[in-house]
């Protein structure tokens, strides 16, 4: 088969939206699949990702196919992101753990038996093996906490474990700024209970997940009376500005997505972080990886992303921010985008779906 140039591709495949494929996606989710006439992709369907809804405020169900090209693009993007992070925050052998608010058990199943999860959960949920867990070995919490069944209890145990080994915490991270604010609000409201648990060496009786509870008991290593006293003295001052460096004095960074709808949480996050630097995230969508943040120290209003043209086939439509609608029908490629112009991106992952607003 001869290669297809961009102009031919655009003429043969019309622009579309997620709604145009909604019935086909539901058909896939229900297991109504004819392997002789595949829907949307010739590659095998592995699972579904649910979008965060940060772009459209309405989560979507995104089929994830076993595509070698998709895996390669995702791998390259993550490797590039990791290299930028390591250059800014080089590893330290003695202080090498992260208070990482990971939750890997938010998984549902479609009528057709396919798993539905956040894209960030897939590396862990794909196979709950030790080899997969090694990808996040820097997380301070035992894996039983990450694979727990109650987010509130998991969040509590993440905090408890990080307070137990406060001196080796190098950073604090979550997928989104909202998740960090929620966790720090829990710290602010439940610090006395956390101190009680450290003092007794046992997590709260509210933690009903037996595997998670047992792993945390082992992690605490018995009563921590002196440590509990230290944390009580800090939190009893009720001064939550810069609390992170007070509780975790060796922490160098706080990392989460702070752009888009997460921008509203940045001031509060800055309040908690104090002098600890806040690092932003990259531009990953459920559809594909869009761009890398080369300067992750920038605040959200100054963040710029370098888009990855090999992650998907991208086109752009002019977009009217005042009308919140597309202002034209002719697409342009990267070279046709003007500086300062508001555009809506179209990525070729499911037949030129128009789904990603880019300004």
Give me the secondary-structure topology.
Layout: H1 6-12, E1 16-17, H2 22-29, E2 45-50, E3 61-65, H3 68-88, E4 97-100, E5 108-109, E6 115-117, H4 122-125, H5 130-133, H6 143-146, H7 151-164, E7 169-176, H8 177-200, H9 210-220, H10 225-235, H11 243-247, E8 253-257, H12 266-273, E9 277-279, E10 283-284, E11 289-293, E12 305-307, E13 314-320, E14 325-326, E15 343-347, E16 353-358
Parallel strand pairs: 1-16, 2-6, 4-7, 7-8, 8-9
Antiparallel strand pairs: 2-3, 5-6, 10-11, 11-12, 13-14, 13-15, 15-16
Quickly list its features:
single chain, 359 residues, alpha/beta, 12 helices, GH3, INDOLE-3-ACETIC ACID-AMIDO SYNTHETASE GH3.6-RELATED
Inertia-based shape = globular
Sheet-strand content, in percent, reads: 15-25%
What kind of oligomer do you see?
Answer: single chain
Structural class: alpha/beta
In total, the number of strands is 16
Distance between the termini: 37 Å
How are the strands of the biggest sheet laid out side by side? Answer: 1-16-15-13-14
């Amino acid at each position: 088969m001869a290669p297809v140039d961009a102009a031919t591709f655009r003429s043969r495949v019309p622009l579309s939206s997620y709604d145009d494929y909604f019935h086909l996606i539901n058909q896939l989710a229900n297991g109504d699949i004819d392997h002789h006439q595949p829907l949307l992709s010739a590659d095998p369907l592995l699972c579904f990702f649910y979008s965060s809804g940060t772009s459209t405020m309405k989560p979507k169900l995104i089929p994830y196919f076993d595509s070698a090209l998709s895996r390669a693009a995702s791998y390259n993007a993550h490797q590039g992101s990791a290299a930028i992070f390591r250059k800014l925050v080089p590893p330290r052998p003695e202080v090498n753990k992260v208070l990482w608010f990971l939750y890997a058990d938010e998984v549902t199943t479609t009528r057709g038996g396919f798993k539905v999860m956040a894209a960030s959960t897939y590396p862990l949920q794909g196979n709950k093996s030790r080899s997969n867990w090694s990808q996040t070995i820097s997380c301070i919490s035992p894996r039983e906490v990450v694979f727990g069944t109650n987010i509130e209890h998991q969040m509590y145990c993440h905090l408890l474990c990080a307070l137990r080994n406060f001196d080796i915490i190098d950073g604090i991270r979550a997928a989104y700024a909202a998740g960090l604010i929620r966790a720090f609000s829990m710290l602010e409201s439940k610090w006395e209970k956390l101190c009680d648990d450290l003092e007794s060496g046992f997590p709260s009786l509210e933690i009903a997940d037996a595997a998670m509870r047992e792993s945390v008991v082992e992690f605490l290593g018995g009563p921590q009376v002196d440590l509990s006293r230290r944390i009580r003295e800090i939190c009893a001052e009720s001064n939550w500005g810069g609390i992170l460096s007070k509780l975790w004095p060796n922490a160098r960074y706080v990392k989460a997505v702070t752009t888009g709808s997460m921008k509203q949480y940045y001031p509060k996050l800055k309040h908690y972080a104090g002098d600890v630097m806040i690092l932003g995230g990259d531009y990953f969508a459920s559809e594909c990886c869009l761009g890398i943040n080369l300067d992750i120290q920038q605040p959200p209003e100054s963040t710029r992303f370098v888009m990855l043209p090999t992650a998907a086939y991208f086109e752009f439509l002019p977009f009217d921010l005042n009308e919140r609608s597309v202002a034209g029908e002719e697409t342009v490629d990267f070279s046709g985008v003007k500086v300062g112009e508001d555009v809506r991106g179209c990525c070729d992952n499911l037949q030129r779906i128009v789904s990603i607003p880019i300004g």
